[in-house]
Amino acid sequence: MTQADQSKESAVTHVQTIEPLGQRNVGEIAANMAGATGVFRRFGIDFCCHGDVPLDEAAQARGIEIELLHGALLELDGTADASAIPDGTAELTDHIVARYHEVHRRQVPELIMLSRRVEQVHAGKPGVPAGLADVLQHALGELEVHMRKEELILFPAMRRQGAGPLDGPIAQMREDHVDHGALLERMAELTGDFTVPEGGCGTWRALYAGAMQFRDDLIEHIHIENNILFPRFESRAAS
Fold first, then answer.
1. Between 16 and 175, where is the model more confident?
2. How far apart are CA 14 and CA 195, in angstroms?
3. Structural domains for the chain
4. Among the four 160, 165, 210, 213, which has the fewest Cβ within 10 Å?
């Protein structure tokens, strides 16, 4: 048996020995099965803000054929992106700040500038994302407050040796994440799911390409916190 076959068999066995795949929450699957986040993005499954939903329930809500989704997950070899996320809490929080916080701080102001340009130059044209710049401006403010709370209060508390449950601040961060998810949904609505109209200019294409990257980064950011980092410091994990 090849190493790839062994990895695939290990991933499948891991899923089956815990509990039936369809009964496991999507957030748990995303956190423990390498490559699952890519499958969920492909099928439109929300694994970050609503990661507490069982897989089959999430599939039914999206009108997805359950067997098709199961098959895509079971085809994973268990090695994709396995080393991308550090294990230690200190290293993981540093990774979140460097890979996501600082990247968002660069991404969103640029998107605001591009959006204002598109909205002004193409005002009144079919498909123009009127109001997108204001949504992005709001997102920037919300994200900055959220990230500063994590950097100055929550993450240092997590790094302290022997830190106990941090249910209160984590609950607030989870609520913020739901709000962030709503902002992403609003962005998708305004942009026709980031579809540039025929003949759209280079600025318009750059705006939507950047907005999609921001969306993907923020979804992954929320997933790592909700499904990997936060459970370490919630009372259910400590009991």
1. 175
2. 39
3. 3-74 (no CATH), 89-238 (1.20.120)
4. 160
